[in-house]
Known about the structure:
By secondary structure, the protein is an all-alpha fold. It has helices at residues 11-14, 18-44, 49-57, 73-99, 105-130, 146-156, 162-186, 193-211, 217-234, 240-248, 262-265, 271-284, 287-311, 318-325, 328-354, 366-375, 380-390, 394-419, and strands at residues 59-64, 67-72. It has a two-stranded antiparallel sheet with strand order 1-2. The longest helix has 27 residues, at 18-44.
Amino acid sequence: MDRVRRRPRSPFVRMLSPLRDFLVTESAGALLIAVGAAAALVWANSPWAASYESFWSSRFSITAAGHTLDLDVRHWLNDGLMTVFFLVVGLEIKREMTDGHLATRRSAALPMVAAVGGMVVPALIYLAIAGGTASRGWAIPMATDIALAVGVLAVAGSRLPTSLRAFLLGLAIVDDIGAIVVIAAVYSTGLSWAWLGAAAVLLLVVVAVRWAGVHALVVYIGLGSLVWLAMHEAGVHPTLAGVALGLLAPSVPRLSAEYIDADDLADVSTAAAAHTTSELAKGSVSVVEWLQHMLHPWTSYLIVPVFALANAGIEISNDGLRDAIGSPIAWGVFAGLLLGKPLGVVGAVLLSVRTGAVDAPQGTRRVQLLGIGTAAGIGFTVAIFITELALPDPEQQASAKLAILAASVVAAAASAIMLRLGPSTGALDQAEG
């Protein structure tokens, strides 16, 4: 490490391209999410349907230091393992805001404007249809499922302009920020200020430990677990602990590329050399990028598909379909996702482009922009997550989830068709002209 010479970066480092890794993993994970949802539906409507709810409702407890947590399997998944999913979301938000599509005011303007329109309009449509006693569900159609939306981009193929792919990713990230704010502000109830204060102190400890140069992962796992427990007991949804820790992760590499010898980085001739190679690889990228690279496959290939399996099992019967068809909640969610999302996204973008506030995505047709807005209406994972928080009544949950599934399927098919229409005359068909 005492050599100061610039050498070509090893393939070990080059392969950690954050955006490429993110998009590839999300695209592949989308298929597993669909498989998980389909398996849940088959299980919940099979001769073994009773075992579906019985399994996910079975309880087990963990006791540590005299404190006991007693939750059912579904809540251990939704509140516990999904924290890792939200940690990855927090890491991606941090990366995008420091070195990505949201790093500058100009580059962030377009996805921010689109995301705000894509959140406000669906919420208003839902409230117009299902207001009153079901008004707590207004945030359900606000959410976009990044994995499934990116999966639709993969179906669209190479015809889709690169600028439009980046736009959808930025839009989805801002959309996630909005969902996180809503979960924290709206669906965290019965706050315990003592536990909330403990969570804040623990987060300050994380900052202090990071400032002191501690890199041992076990230390952060321990502190993160305590933050999760404090938020859980405080009445704040504990998955927000993952977001907070992701945002606190360092976004600058510990080791400058100028101080890394490419020969050392590629040396795995002995166990000691392989260990050194591993440490150099970790230090040559930021903690944000390294954790994303390590954790994102686990969330996309395991945690989120299992979440789909645990939460998408809806009994589809004549009575259930009749209830959903007559449910304002179902229609509010369906219309919010399928109509509100594209209307909000496209309307906000076209208005902003015409006023000169933002630049249109290069080489994009209006129909493709409409396809992106429609893809944003695929609200599966986070929409179902918010449904579990917003609607305590099982019948209301079932109607909302059925609407989410139906809207997501229709939105995916419609957006894939629109996005496959090739580029033509330029950005938004010269809309600003």
